[in-house]
Amino acid sequence: MSTQPLPSSFIKKASDIASFYGFRHAQSLDRELPKESRLAISGSRDADRVAEACVTCMVSRSQKATAAAAAVAAEKNEKPQQTRAQDAMLCYFTNPTPSEAPHGINPRDVAEFGVSIVGSSGSIGEIVALKTLFSILADSGARVRGVRIGSGGDRDSQMRFSRELSAYLKKRSADIPDCCSKSMAQDPLSMMRCPGEVCSKIIDEGPRAMGFLSEKSRSHFREVLEYLERAGMTYELDERLVHDPRMPRVLFSLDIENEDHLIVGARGGRYDDHLRKLSGRKDATVVRASVFFKKKGLERSAFTYDDREKRAKIYFVKLGLEASLKSLTVLDSLRKARIPVYQSFSADKLGPQLSEAERLKVPYLIIMGQREAMQDAVIVRRVETRSQQMVRLIDLPLYLKAV
Ligand SMILES: [Zn+2]
Q1: 196 C-alpha vs ligand 1 centroid, how far in Å?
Q2: What's the 164 CA to ligand 1 centre distance in angstroms?
Q3: From CA 94, how far away is CA 202, in angstroms rounded?
Q4: Residues 6+ apart with CB under 8 A from 307
Q5: Ligand 1 centroid to 181 CA: how many Å?
Q6: Which one of 98, 187, 336, 400 is most buried, by most CB atoms within 10 A?
Q7: Is residue 185 classed as helix, strand or coil in its secondary structure?
Q8: 303 by DSSP, 3-state: which?
Q9: What secondary structure does DSSP assign to 340-390, as a single string?
Q10: How many angstroms separate the alpha carbon of residue 259 from the centre of ligand 1?
Q11: Using one digit for the tens of pLDDT, what is the confidence trace for 40-51?
């Protein structure tokens, strides 16, 4: 017997799990958006539209915050400061497009549950997305055979690689079989997707995408791999993964061992350049991760979920990477205790996180810096009285249940 959950509960469960890592339903953004963007987010349920709406929302949030800060500064006769908005973490479900569905799966046979982190440029974005995928898969009884991961790097890295690959394939053109000889002329990278033996061999003997990473992309990718190791997730490098028309900087794919399982695959990556093109904003960043599950035979009710927002009483403030990494373990224990928190993974500064906590009107803060992370503890602060107490991580769920 397989340990599958009832299909009708899958999306509900998945979004419940995602909510403990800080993801909110895409629809909950609606009231923060200008009217014309509202329809885009709740009407289409398209991953690209969700990401675009997030960018719009963050821009308007940061404008509002900047205006508020300017008013305060004017009163005090001080110079106003630019306020940056926090990242937006959203979940949604949709029908995948052909380029998004896992390889070898008809996109019409599956539905997609996805999470997006818009506004986090650091490698912790990839880790949070992967961590969320792992939790959803583990909860559903799907066994992960392994993580394949690759990096194409930023636009410049990808352009250099693409030029090099084209030049190489031109030299080998006499060896290229019919399956790829035509498409080659239009899109040389398409050959990386060809399962044919001859094509695979030609690609294997050619230039490697990872050899063309810029210094910045290389160090970003190195960080992602380092965190994967520290989080105990085993991975293998897969250079072919990076071929995708949306030019992901990092791409990962999780293979499911139990073939009869409801979930057929999970994948995601960093699509900064794609979102920049869509939104016209040069600083846009997005990490996406999705679970694909069979929809054949599922009742309509399988696609409904509770989109009312779970209000959290706590905002989890993290300072520095050490704390961000350790926070993932903390979130696991809070999830098991069913204690939701708000958080962001983009900020390594205290100010923006505190103003976000203020905006959300939470009565409690959990604060973890480098020192607390080393001591396996956090500071719990009551916003109203500003009284605070050091609490050991092991005692945290019980402590928070009692407040
Ligand atoms: Zn081929």
Answers
A1: 5
A2: 19
A3: 36
A4: 25, 27, 28
A5: 7
A6: 400
A7: helix
A8: helix
A9: -EEE-SS--SHHHHHHHHHHHT-SEEEEE-HHHHHTTEEEEEETTT--EEE
A10: 27
A11: 555 445 778 777
Burial 101-125 (b: 16+ CB within 10 A, else e): bbeeeebeebbbbbbbbbbbbbbbb
Element (H, E) at 149: strand 144-151
| Centroid of ligand 1 to alpha carbon of 368 (angstroms) | 52
Q: What is the CA radius of gyration of the chain?
A: 22
**Rounded Cα distance, 301 and 140, in Å:** 18
Among residues 10, 17, 20, 11, the alpha carbon closest in space to that of 400 is found at 20
User: pLDDT tens digits, residue range 170-216?
Assistant: 999 999 999 988 887 788 778 888 889 999 999 999 999 899 999 99
User: Which of 71-80, 221-230, 258-267, 385-394 has the highest average model confidence (pLDDT)?
Assistant: 385-394
The DSSP line for 97-125 is PTTTSPTTS-GGGEEEEEEEEES--STHH
Residue 172 C-alpha to ligand 1 middle, in angstroms?
13
DSSP H helices, 22-93, are: 35-44, 47-75
340: its two tokens: 């939701």
Q: pTM for the full model?
A: 0.85
SS3 402: helix
Which amino acid would we find at residue 95? N
Centre of ligand 1 to C-alpha 180, Å, is: 4
102 C-alpha to ligand 1 centroid (Å): 19
Q: Tell how far the Cα of 245 is from the centroid of ligand 1, in angstroms.
A: 18
Residue 28 has which token pair?
A: 């909950």
User: Helices H, strands E: what count in the chain?
Assistant: 13, 13
Identity (one letter) of the amino acid at 152? G
